[in-house]
Prior knowledge:
Layout: E1 6-7, E2 12-14, H1 16-19, H2 21-30, E3 37-41, E4 50-56, E5 59-65, E6 71-75, E7 90-92, E8 95-97, E9 104-106, E10 111-113, E11 134-138, E12 141-145, H3 153-157, H4 160-168, E13 175-177, E14 182-186, H5 191-199, H6 203-207, H7 209-213, E15 227-230, E16 236-240, H8 249-259, H9 265-271, E17 274-279, E18 283-288, E19 291-301, E20 304-314, H10 319-332, H11 338-355, E21 362-364, E22 381-383, H12 389-401
Amino acid sequence: MSRPLVDSADRTISSRVFTDPAVHALEQSHVFSRCWLYVGHRSQFKAPGDFVQVLAGTVPMLLCLDDAGQFHAIANVCTHRGGRICQLEHGNAARFVCPYHNWTFNNRGDLIAVPRQHSPGFDKSRWNLMRAARVATYRDLIFCTFDPDACSLEDYLGEMKWYLDLVLSSSAAGTEVSAGVHRSIIHCNWKIPAEQFGSDNWHFQGVHGSMGRLGHRNEDPLHANSFHSWTANGHMLISVAPRREIPGANTAYLDGLAQQGNLSDAQLRLLRGSLVMTVFPNLSFVYFPGLCSIRVWQPIAADQTELWSWALYNRDAPEAVKEGIRTQVTRMFSPSGMLEQDDLEVWTRLETNLKSMPPSFRLCYEFGAGEAGTARPFPGATTNLQSDTPAFAFYKHWARLVGQDATP
């Protein structure tokens, strides 16, 4: 009997999880077709008829706002011959006309016109665009799912909502994203960066060691507010407390939010440091004081990921704070960013190495095995920053979804 892809007996993971096209195909039908997937932010929509092109797993979609204020996630693929019905990345339209044979659809995905005479009994309603079963929002984030039987988005996020609120609801005005999007093609499997951005503070010293040598690291990994957390449904988070408070525009801004009562003491303490989190399967956030970015790891192929990222900030933040965040995101987490260039190089090397190994090759996730965990006044299970347990929990949830249950 072959070993499972994710083996709880010895806390190992098969390299096929990151390299095998058959596993990638299995994910599309068992993970991305069943989970809630991030597809947009409210601030990208200003008026009825606005739309943006997005991806939901590998499916090209249009996220549209209709006249009633409802969001619709519809496939950007014509049901006649598979043409791309919209070529623009974003815009405003009440209808979309496929340029191949001019089938016309409204912004809810309904087929409304066919230009030539069709056969008697032709039923246009049979040929509406493929669409997500449900679209829902949490704060300003927009998600969709293809599974009509999926739990509610609120239940799916569960305890992770408390951590999301750190970056999404420190102001009653809500948040907005930068007008532009950074995009990068990464020659690695999407799970490699998704794992790192929710459970791997350990890599920082090796991959980004130059920052420490330049004096740019400000971390206290042994502080009570430095920990890993993981929750149901595969979500996970890294929190790292600062060694010292660094005065500046962002510090003053946080103090002002706290004085307005928008932040609890516990929330304010965590926002003084760094937060990096992954909402299963492929949505991540990175927050440093004065920097916040939304990042989506689009699963293009088993060995290829397209990273989409935006700067994120409070809608009513002073323009100086917004500009500072946009600048820092570009400096640190963009295709030319100091930290992102380090990561992209390592991830590509990991994929190349794993593809060169035999299918029997397995990876070690045993650090923290058998730990009872540490009680902290924060949601979810928590442990120290050296543990592999949050990452392994991510893969155990993934394994259950793809039918490779890792539970002994």
